[in-house]
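We emphasize that the prediction below concerns an isolated chain of 337 residues; any contacts that depend on oligomerization or on bound cofactors are therefore not represented. The input was used exactly as deposited, without trimming of termini.
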Amino acid sequence: MKMRDVAKLANVSPATVSRVIRHPNLVSKETREKVLVVIKELNYQPHMIASQFRTRKTKTILVVIPDIRDPFFSQVLRGIEYTASYYGYKVLLGDTGNNLDKERQFIDFLFQKQVDGIILLTARLDISNLQQISAQFPMVLACEYLDGLEVPMVSIDNVSSARKMTEHLIQLGHIRIAHITGPMDVVLSRDRLRGFQQAMMIHELTIPPAYIQEGNYGLKSGYNQMIKLLALEELPTAVFTFNDEMAMGAIKAIKDYGMKVPDDIAVVGFDNLEISAVFEPGITTIQQPKYEIGEQAMDLLIKLINGVLLSKKKFVLQDELIVRESCGSKVTCVTYK
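Result of the prediction step, given as a token string:
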């Protein structure tokens, strides 16, 4: 069926049918209902390719994610998808597997006119490349913050959050604190390491080189890096891990060595995954407003697609320190902003 068939049966012009589909608020209620009845009876589906030729829009946006297995991103994606659907857009998901070449391949979708805009949930491309791409196409960076990049960004302050977490361990009396980082070619890993180092420096606490171990996001990585820390002659009394998954791996390693968390070694994480509250022991962590990050990133992208000039491009959302049993505090499930 074609649009003119719907128009003929509804006794209106094809232009009116088009307005009912794309701008129903411009059509009277009576006409709108008449056309919708015919559309439903005929099971009419608009010809999307023809529509793209007319409007030069695909009504599709691309979200580039570093690792689809990471549960952190699920809530961010929910916020993006809900907002995209509200504006009539579809979401295409590109999983790079932390591979820079794949990231470049997905970004090529913009040059091939397959999508109207892109949200990067991580960026391994250098700032100059990102700047050039954003000058040509609608682009938003979410979850990360890059200094010197003139692209709309939505994230928390990862440096401040990591400093807050480390300060909490110091206030509990820990002076030998280790840090299991994420991959150091990722800005989030560098920012959280920087926050950790700042807190230790403020309190004039030394960080032996072996107390910083580079991991790779997952449970197994947290486990393996914790084994390295457990092999040291002088063990840390607390470990700050890049994320909650790595914290769980670290806790498993400590238990396998016949030690207890937090009695022998305290462990804290980051991101506040749902499982962190029911894991044994409950993991002290940083809560990110994941859904809101996705929601705001998508809202910004829609504005860029529609040619809106943004007066503000940097959005830093509020995080929370969630205190649970894994760090040795006697206070359970209390939050500090």
